[in-house]
């Protein structure tokens, strides 16, 4: 089934700065779903899932958070935090005129979705979380991103050279996920350093107490044998949020290369979230 697709943008004004954020809408209607990408990845990573959900009647939006994809990339670490990203999602909903949405994402996107649920629970119809990054991922995250931060700060030519080499490759002539990899390598060293720095030294996710207070319907997808996103974190989160459902992927790559099962699980979850009565937040 073909669905309409539309690219849009909006602007954030704060502290004398103006930042542009870009998004893509799939489908239409009032059953909104917002999908958020992983760290340093583009929103296009969620294009297959967005098209699948839109074909089921959902109005799906994929957003490039600040510093990612085709959104602006300021070189100021103070511009980047999970809290700031959560505010950007709320600003997107305001821009679209969406009172509520199922909010979800992968890795960083999952953590940002949790932040939205903790700070603006009245805007969240449900949470669709893949590979959240919590306590069990701390050491692996440091080992993964510290070298990247050091390279971006002290050997910026490495990041900028990769950008010059990968940017000219036409995305239409390579397989989809190879194109996503090329897009992920299309970085500026100063912006990469700022993003990683901001996330390293800021709040990475809502506290356990805040997570236990979430009342939105929640689906958590965990991966086996994934050191950066341990399944233990996903299972822990599913145990903390009342009534959350935990689904284990068959492998790290299942949702990327053989998505039918998890697309169906996600579609069923979104249908149920939008059928269920609107919940009052515990804060209210």
From TrEMBL:
Database matches in SUPFAM superfamilies: alpha/beta-Hydrolases
Annotated GO CC locations: membrane
Highest taxon in the source lineage: Bacteria
Residues in AB hydrolase-1 domain copies: 32-137
Gene Ontology molecular function: monoacylglycerol lipase activity
Gene Ontology BP term (one): acylglycerol catabolic process
Protein name: Pimeloyl-ACP methyl ester carboxylesterase
